[in-house]
Amino acid sequence: MNLHVIDIAIILAFLATSVIVGYWVSHRAAKSTKNYFLGGNVLPWWVLGVSNASGMFDVAGTMLLVYWMFIYGLKSIWIPWMWPVFNQIFLMVYLSGWLRRSGVTTGAEWIKFRFGDNKGAQLSHIIVVVFALVGVISFFTYGFKGIGKFATEFLPWQLSGDPIQNANLYALILMGLTAFYVVKGGMFSVVITEVLQFALLSIASVAIGIIAMNTIAPDAIKAAIPAGWDNIFFGWQTGLDWSKTVPAANMKILEDGSSLFGLLFLMYLSKGILVSAAGPAPNYDMQRVLSTRNARDACKMSAVVNVVLNVPRYFMVAGLTILALVLYKTQINAMGTAMDFEKILPDALFSQVPTGLLGITVAGLLAAFMSNFAATVNAAPPYIVNDIYRRFINPNASEKTCVRLSIASSLAIVVIGICIGWFITSINNVVGWITSALWGGYAASNLIKWYWWRFNGYGYFWGMMTGILSALILPFLLPAELQAAWQANPALPQLLRDFLTLPTALVCFPVILGISLVGCFAGSLLSKAEDDEVLMNFYKKTRPWGFWGPVLKKVQAADPSFKPNPDFFRDMFNIVVGIVWQTSLVAMPIYFVIREYQRAEIALGIVTVTSVTLYITWFRHLNKAYPDSELAAAKEAVPAE
């Protein structure tokens, strides 16, 4: 494929603009590590929300969404629950506020706030740093494969005769361009360029949706899809039969382990609730929360992500999917089982989007990659500088030294991520391991830390240690041949055999979670509780609901005016309403693009009702949950630079 010279000019102009703007604002970061890591806590909440959404609107993820929608239709809106996408609802409703109240810079610093500074807390501190770096490198690898596959379809130069190495070289070049301003500029460069990039991407997304609507007739869509494709609901199985249109899609459903879609959904839902209630992982999402001005803004920032990300993104996803379904089906069938469904997005773009708009769209998707890459890279230095160098090596290091070390550590993460990404072949495999195995190792310790007073640093450390080791080992101890043999064993109960049809990493999730829970409870109950002073300080400042009775009594003994958090049932109600709201925001643009207007109106009606409900039960309550007196006290407590 070769782009028109106009498209190439647009792409190159955009890349140059992003680098120049990012570098231009980078001088702000050199003032202090607080500026470098958190933008000085002066960026508006809505700007951080757009920035966070831009970081999530990545090329690799969008390629997956198009491939999932092509094969699974409207049922594909449930598949991103594997992340889970509704963690943003938990953050919006209460967890962002709880986290931001701490006033720390990183997730590892939060550990000291929660567990103190004894040996157990120090071990927990170290294990969070390890997890954060493993997570950053994993997301880096995921982005590396996505941008490489995308770039080879559009950029005209053959850098290598080997297609895989050609993709890797393109990824290397694009990451190098982005690293030029991210490494030097920190959070200021990341956020400013992400807002600009998201504006461009949103324009391109809506334009693609409109092109698809004007190009593809509803009858043509009906003729190209199997029965049930346009139905958001499902039974125990997918109910989709592609044998008459795209037979390779049936093979892909089997390969994905998604035949029993109802069981897959139940696993995603249960896993998602546990992971969401554990709070944000120590990555760019957490960094955006900690970068807000105060706890109230942190909650509002997470709310913005849901609207800003989903509506324009799914205009693009739906548009490219129906273009591929109707106009690219012949080429897909010609490839047979060799078809790489992850390349549907670039193939559909190139064959159907006109010159000029194609350049803008490709530039927008490159912007999405740059946003995600920038956010990922910028999340790593705080853990290396604040949580290793400053804490264990040189506590008295100057701000200038720490900023320089931040730049060096960013470069080191880039190099390590590229080296690992060079040998990975599938985006989907990386996503499966991150969302199931790695999150399984994270969930138990980080869930319990919010809600149970007796959980201590040793429990956290052993829960995380056993979870991470299990995530790194167990998926590789269950090869496909062994899993297939167990599926075929008639001596096993049918439900267990059904369970073994799921992707390997998801099969391992409950085992990893169970091992991690044993580590959590054994580590906590075989060692003493944290000091009262540490627990009381955490409880008074964070004000979580949960099993905090003994600590509450001690706090009220010292301060009879203290009131416990009464919002558990309100928060649970808002989470349910919020998940329905978020899902409707996804479904509405899809139904609009495929011209199922009646269903689009139903989705819009649900969005309206849930929006009004959340305004009354959540938004108006923020002022009471986070009063001005608390925000003023927190601002005064921040030391001057």
From TrEMBL:
Compartments it resides in: Cell membrane
CDD domains per record: SLC5sbd_u1
InterPro entries, A to Z: Na/Glc_symporter_sf, Na/solute_symporter, Sodium:Solute_Symporter
Reaction(s) the record says it catalyses: L-proline(in) + Na(+)(in) = L-proline(out) + Na(+)(out)
PROSITE patterns listed in its UniProt record: NA_SOLUT_SYMP_3 (PS50283)
N-terminal signal peptide: none
Pfam entry (one): SSF
TM annotation in the entry: 6-25, 45-71, 77-99, 120-144, 164-183, 195-217, 260-282, 303-328, 357-380, 401-424, 430-448, 460-480, 500-526, 572-594, 600-619
UniProt keywords, alphabetically: Cell membrane, Ion transport, Membrane, Sodium, Sodium transport, Symport, Transmembrane, Transmembrane helix, Transport
Protein name: Na+:solute symporter
Source organism of this protein record: Rhizomicrobium electricum
